[in-house]
Design brief:
By secondary structure, this protein is of the alpha+beta class. It is built from three helices and six strands, in the order H-H-E-E-H-E-E-E-E. It has a six-stranded antiparallel sheet with strand order 1-2-4-5-6-3.
């Protein structure tokens, strides 16, 4: 499966402006530019938690996709919001467990250099 082509066909991530910038060998990175439409506050400066969640889930799935080469539905995603995100976001994901049926991916998301949330995704592989 062409991982990049698969990721380009995700309308929701396109809507948010999420871009996966690197994928390979159980690792992925991505980014999204902050804009007013992604905010939860009237000033348009602080991102809604769903933006960081979707970025973490997308980049986590991409890291796993680089190893299993098939679509991987999310079973569970745990996210701990550590700070509010007020600028552009970047994320890095690593596959930490790859099983026949289940995989686990850890994701770190930063906003303007500040560590915003930690996330752990569980995905179906079999």
């Amino acid at each position: 499966m062409d991982v990049e082509a698969f990721l380009e066909r995700m309308p929701f991530t396109d809507l948010l402006g999420i871009e996966v910038t690197e994928v390979g060998d159980g690792h992925a990175e991505g980014r999204v530019e902050m804009r007013e439409e992604l905010a939860w506050d009237a000033e348009g400066t602080t991102a809604h938690g769903g933006v960081t969640f979707t970025l973490a889930d997308t980049v986590g799935g991409a890291a796993l996709l680089s190893q299993v080469e098939q679509p991987v539905p999310t079973i569970d995603m745990r996210i701990d919001y550590l700070e509010a995100g007020t600028g552009d976001f970047s994320a890095a994901a690593e596959v930490v467990r790859l099983g026949d049926d289940i995989a686990v991916v850890e994701v770190t998301v930063c906003s303007e250099g500040t560590h915003v949330p930690d996330a752990r995704g569980v995905y179906k592989t079999g």
